Each structure stands twice: as structure tokens, then as C-alpha cells.
Predict the structure of Amidohydrolase.
Amino acid sequence: MEAPADLIAIRRDLHAHPELRFEEVRTSGIVADYLMTHGYTPHRGFAKTGVVATLDTGRPGPSIILRADMDALPVTERGGQAHASRHEGRMHACGHDGHTTMLLGAAAALAVAPPERGIVHFVFQPGEEGGAGADVMIREGLLERFPADACFGLHNWPGLQAGQFGVRAGPVMAGGWRFALRLRGRGAHAAQPHRGTDSVVAGAAFVQAAQTLVSRRTDPLIPAVVSVCMFHAGSTDNILPDGAELAGTIRALDRGVLETLKDGLKDIAAGIATSCGVEADIRFHSPYPVTVNSVPETEFVRGVIRALDTDGYPAAMTDIPPSLASEDFGFFLEARPGVYAMLGNGEGSAPLHAPDYDFNDAIIPRGVAYWTTLARRFMARPDEKGRSHDNV
Ligand SMILES: [Zn+2]
Ligand SMILES: [Zn+2]
């Protein structure tokens, strides 16, 4: 199936005009205009630039959220296409231009041929890249204003064949925390270290000890990562500095393991403070939850993608390996059951966040078909035991 020309035009226009987290003003305007053209009355303003449109069939049934992210990354594009970014240092390097376009296509298609009952909310979310825009929308009351029984997200995936779906039950993307460690010692002459307390040696000991957490303190069968990515100290080669600053990130596919890593880093910081005679202050920030697909909804999505495995597309991977990247859709899946699924961007695709990445327009119809089939099938599901929609 070929992608409709109007959707390709929108995708390429969004690609040429990328906007960073919470600055998606032009993008959200295009989204809202398109939705209005197709009969919706979009709500605007959640998390500054979020857009939500609702399709109410008028017949009692379940409600679902279908979510796309809209933001770009601070990357300078190195692709040569005519639709390459017009802005130095801004680029749709994660394909959110494609996600937005596919959900718009689905909203248009479902407006013409709606599900037999229930309510579908189309959520266009800002600030996925490091902004936890999902968390912001939920804190601002998204789920109270637009109640949903389940939430669904879709991300293009380089390395999977173009149009091939992938899904797994349970943890699919890692949760994580960023951390910052400040060490305060006492500066001294390089030749008289005993007259001060050395923050550089203390920092080096912290880096080394932090690497024993994953090997010695967490379950080796559960993937996890500790990375110290920044270490700043000193000004010249014959002075021991009076402090050091370190920063990094921890990632894991299990909430308990994340807590273990946090506790471990605090213990190491405290131990090094004692043994090296420095003050150590470790702070954690920017938490992302583990993105966990609920089991019954994953089983449901497996049915959806199997039904779409026609027209010569490669068979879906119904138990795709998880990734240690993080994704703020985890906030939706902490609040409601649901599924975060992958759609192949092609085996030859550059990786996500790379300067030569581009979303593959050929997969737009697959994404639209995924959303429309998912919505129709979800509403056709038999009600759970004891739940009735007759008297709503
Ligand atoms: Zn990304
Ligand atoms: Zn992304």
C-alpha cells in the first residue's frame, strides 16, 4: 500500500520544521488544523503545546488513548533530502514527525469509519525527548479530562524490516535516573597531599566502585547499566583541587533494580566520604519509569498485528527483545494498562538520534492501519466480567 500524498506532505513538512521539547508551536498548530478539517474539536494546552482530539461514537463502550509524540532533537541533520531540516541544531532524528503523521492519518480514517462503540482519544504529546512530556500532561489532569481504560503508543524502529511490527509483554524500555555527585575536599599543593583531602582520588574511587553495582549487587539475569558520564575537577597540574563534580545515569528494566542501584550509589558516596575524608552529596533527578506492557493488552495487540501481517509484509515479532533506552510512555503505562509497540523503519535505516536518520514514509500506511485496526478491535472486544456499559 502506498502512503497517501497528503500524509507524506505533512510528514515532510514537519521534518523540515522540527521543534524542540515544549516548543512545538508550529507543529501543534498543524496538528490541530488537520484535526479540525476532519471534523474534530481539538483541545489544546496540556503541557503547553499538547493537542487532544476525541472521537465519541455516542454508543457506550470502552475508552482508549492513542498517543503520538511531536518533538525533535538538538541534532544538526546530515541527510541530503529536499525535506531536510531548515534549522541548524534541530532535527526530527527520532521519527516523531512520522508518529504524529500516522496518528493524524488514523484520526481521519476513524472519523470516516468509526469503531462500533466507545471513545477514542488521540493524544499528541510534546516533550518526549528528555522532557517527560507524558508525565507533565498526566500531572496537569489529562486522564481526568480524557478518561481511558487503556493507552497505546507506537515507535518506529530502525533494524526491524520496513513495516514489520514488534511487541513484547512486560518491560520493553528501561527506567532510569540521572545523578549528580558533588565532592568537597580541601585543596593542597600537589607535593603535600597529606595537608589536604583529595577529591580527585575520591571521585576515581567512586567511579570504580559504581561499576561493581551491576556485577555484584543486582541480579545478573536482569539487564542494568551504571554510567558515569561527566567528571570535572581541577585547574592545573600541580594543585590538588578542593572539589569535584561527577554526573551520570542508571538504567534498568526492573523498578526494584533501579532502587538497588540508587541505594548502592548512595552507599558508595557515603563510604568514600568516610574513607577519603571528603564531603559527598549525591542527588538523583529526572526519573523515567520502566515502560511495562500489560499482559492482556499485549495479547490483544499480538492479535492486531497478526491480522495486519498481509500484503507480503514480514511477520511480526511477537516477543521482541527489550531496549535499555528510556521512553516517557512509561508514565502512561504506570497509570493505565496498555502497550508500547515497535514498527520497523527498515533494516538499512540509520539509528534513532543519528544525524543521517530519516523516518521511512513507506511505513505510514502500516502505522495508520495499526491504529485503526487496534481501535476497532478494542471496541469489539467482549466486556470484562462484571462490567457493563448498558446503563452508562
Ligand atoms: Zn528519541
Ligand atoms: Zn522517540
